[in-house]
Write a structure and sequence with these properties.
By secondary structure, this protein is mainly α. It has one domain: Orthogonal Bundle (Tetracycline Repressor, domain 2). The chain is about 75% helix and about 0% strand. It contains 10 helices and no strands. The mean pLDDT is about 90. Keywords: DNA-binding, Transcription, Transcription regulation. GO terms for molecular function: DNA binding. This is TetR/AcrR family transcriptional regulator.
């Protein structure tokens, strides 16, 4: 039997969950401790400040993004990888309808911060853009950079609408359209 995650890992996972549901600014360390099932006093053992916990949550999301994109590399062609990426995003439609895009909402909120950590998160958005650009480049597209931005912008836009209208079908329809679009570019 695998060991249960340690307190630090549970705190990071709890932070990501609560940040997504409530936003960073509205979340307290007590909220995170409750979500992680860790006594509040233990939070300070692992993280001296809320900002340190935010950084750990962002690092965890960054690693999850990289792992998810690396897993798509098993697809045989760049077209298949891009379509699998779209399907992966669409699979989160019910959650997105309730709480928005985990990546987009977090980056948007963090970029509004006035402290020294504000504005340090564009690399989170850069990860899927760079990955998509490599796929489009492998398709032989000279406009790979523009296509990658268009793909991520389309997803983030539909994530916003899906959350606004609480309608996962919007994302499913856009996913089907994006798959057809990718097919025309190959």
């Amino acid at each position: 039997m695998a060991d249960a995650p340690g307190k630090r890992e549970r705190l990071v996972a709890g932070a990501r969950e609560v940040f997504h549901a409530r936003g960073v600014e509205r979340t307290t360390l007590a909220d995170i401790a409750t979500a992680a099932d860790v006594p509040l006093g233990n939070v300070y053992y692992y993280f001296r400040t809320k900002d340190a916990l935010v950084e750990a949550a962002v690092d965890d999301l960054r690693e999850e993004l990289r792992e998810a994109l690396a897993a798509l590399e098993s697809e045989p062609t760049p077209e298949a990888r891009l379509k699998a990426f779209v399907r992966l995003l669409v699979s989160e439609a019910p959650l997105t309808a309730r709480q928005g895009c985990p990546l987009g909402t977090l980056v948007s909120e963090l970029n509004k911060r006035e402290d020294e950590t504000g504005g340090a998160w564009p690399d989170l958005m850069r990860i899927p853009i760079d990955w998509a650009e490599r796929q489009f480049r492998e398709l032989g597209r000279e406009d790979a950079d523009e296509l990658a931005v268009a793909l991520i912008a389309s997803y983030e836009g539909i994530a916003l609408l899906t959350g606004t209208f609480r309608d996962p079908e919007l994302m499913a329809r856009e996913g089907r359209r994006l798959e057809r679009w990718i097919g025309t570019l190959a």
